[in-house]
Amino acid sequence: MKTNYLVTAVAVATIGVSSVLLYQAANKFGQREVAMAKAEGVRPAVTFTRPGTGESGVLPNAFISCDVILPNTGAGVDASTMNESSVRLLKADTMLPVKSRLNTSGAGDAIVLQPLELLSPKTQYIFEVNDKLRDTRGASFRPYKFTFTTAAVSRTESFPVAFEKVSMPATKVMMPGRDMPSAYTGLAFGPDGKLYAGTFDGRIFCFEVKADGTLGNPQTISTIQAAAQGPRIITGITFDPKSSASDPILWVGHGQMAFNEGRIEGADDWTSKISVLSGPSLSSCQDVVINLPRAFKDHLNFQMAFGPDGALYFCHGSNTSNGEPDKKWNFRPERLLTAATLRLDPKLIKQTPLDVKTEDGGTYNPSVADAPLTIYATGVRSGFDLLWHSNGNLYTGLNGAAAGGNAPGNAAAGKPVVPPIYDIKETTHDLLLKIERGKYYGHPNPIRGEFVLMGGNPTKDADTQEIKNYPVGVNPELNFAPPVFDFGYSVSPNGLTEYRGNAFGGKLNGKILVTRYSGGKDIIVLTPAADGSIAEATTGIDGFTQFSDPLDIVQHPSTGNLYVAEYGGRQITLLRPNEKGVSRNVFHQVVGK
């Protein structure tokens, strides 16, 4: 039976069914993936890949990404079962495995394989997943296999920019009581010239920077852990503009540390905070904002950046995949402050901590006059970092949603009818957004009256960021703003920094460097145009490739050295400019051509 989503939308709007009931009602019609999962004994499976089955002309710097169906509520891909025996790429003529790095998304709803070297031209490859791969509930994946062929000629160029990559094993710092290093989640240079690094267990490490750019033994700052009486996941650190070397003031965004078999999931709602550390060795902690919402998985309040107006800006992740509660995200609904870029004006805070709980008994209203925390822009699903560029624009890298989520419907009187869509077949793209006040960037939130996912599907032709699951005629929200750059699928753009200085004759000055955590596992260089859009993208610069899940990036204020937090590698890596170096395998993409 084919579901008539328009009829369903009108019916549920009339009787006022809640979001979760609306999801359950739609599933009475029986979705293909759910039926398949039940028939297969509730087994997760690959549903779509990039490159596609039988595709030819694949570039030699390609990576493989897979959409997956995860039928077990709250479960994700079990990263501990991802290895060469469960997920692999084979060169067809030799049947030898290609050395690669494997990972899943932060939500555990994708499979990504990144070859460690460029693929051979005009060569067939075989990608396969077998039942040794499991989800976090222990269910094995259905076997899956496909082939693709690379292009005959490598489209590479020489480029007079190169960096020396310097591994710093001393930055691997063990977690107390556990036989594993901590993972770094955020980097910031302090007014004292030292590098500060936040971790996923709540500690902050302060490193002296040596003359050669390498880092000395760190000072451990456990102030957040002490205040919380336990571990917290730090999601952002930034120094107050008023800070000085003798009086540092560090703003810290953090949330509940909830892990299940190594994955971030099972977190309680309303457990995120922003705190300020100050005093000798940053030993004093004051909670400034409490009761920020929190997703079941890894979405919470992300990296912060002070704007030119003195206010603090940060993105708050979504609670859902596509705006409507879903099984992957444990049916937690969106909140008023989720999937948005928020602005905190410290001058307007009359008493700390500021309680910003908006639902479940909370009464905070970000729209009242003189509200310290307000909504600056909406529809930002997951923007890990924010960059105030010298061109005056505010940028973030958006992590798109994997297939399998749900989008809400709306049939309110006097409003355009938006049909709900369930078990969405499409993965949405990873994007670079230029954030502007009052704009909407595509992630629905029914509490705010936002229902259309991305660009909708307004015409029968190809539309900007269209969702093909919608019937033709669904227009985007009136204030929808398209991205300034499209990364494609399963890249996970996270850390952003603007390169400043005259290294390489100024060839990198003003360019935006973005870490690609999943697909790519590298740093992509974006060149802004005069209007703030992106004119060119460059990959393959020496020193900018083959990271282990690069999450954050920061530049030393005077030397031009870069520091990358490798989340998977559990270390910080130094990149030193090689002024005489030339990168030989660089890919340039002129945007729009």
At the fold tier of CATH, the topology name of the largest domain is Neuraminidase
> Structural class from helices and strands?
mainly beta
CATH superfamily of the largest domain: TolB, C-terminal domain
Overall average residue pLDDT: 89
Rounded radius of gyration (Å): 23 Å
How are the SSEs placed, and which strands pair?
Blueprint lengths: L4 H11 L3 H9 L4 H8 L5 E6 L13 E6 L17 E5 L4 E2 L2 E4 L6 E6 L8 E6 L14 E6 L7 E3 L3 E5 L16 E6 L5 E5 L4 E4 L11 E3 L1 H6 L3 E8 L10 E7 L2 E2 L2 E2 L7 E7 L5 E9 L8 E6 L5 E5 L23 E5 L9 E2 L17 E6 L8 E2 L5 E5 L31 E6 L49 E4 L4 E6 L13 E5 L5 E7 L5 E6 L10 E6 L6 E5 L4 E7 L5 E8 L3
Parallel strand pairs: 20-24
Antiparallel strand pairs: 1-2, 2-6, 3-4, 3-7, 5-6, 7-8, 9-37, 10-36, 11-12, 12-13, 13-14, 15-16, 16-19, 17-18, 19-20, 21-22, 22-23, 23-25, 26-27, 27-28, 28-29, 30-31, 31-32, 32-33, 33-37, 34-35, 35-36
Could you describe the 3D structure shown?
The chain has 593 residues and is mostly beta strands. It folds into 2 domains: 31-152, Immunoglobulin-like; 159-590, 6 Propeller (Neuraminidase). Helix content is 6%, strand content 33%. The chain has 4 helices and 37 strands. The chain has a 6-stranded antiparallel beta sheet with strand order 9-37-33-32-31-30, with no helix packed on it. It has a 5-stranded mixed beta sheet with strand order 15-16-19-20-24. Strands 1-2-6-5 form a 4-stranded antiparallel beta sheet, with no helix packed on it. The two termini are 43 Å apart. 50% of the residues are buried.
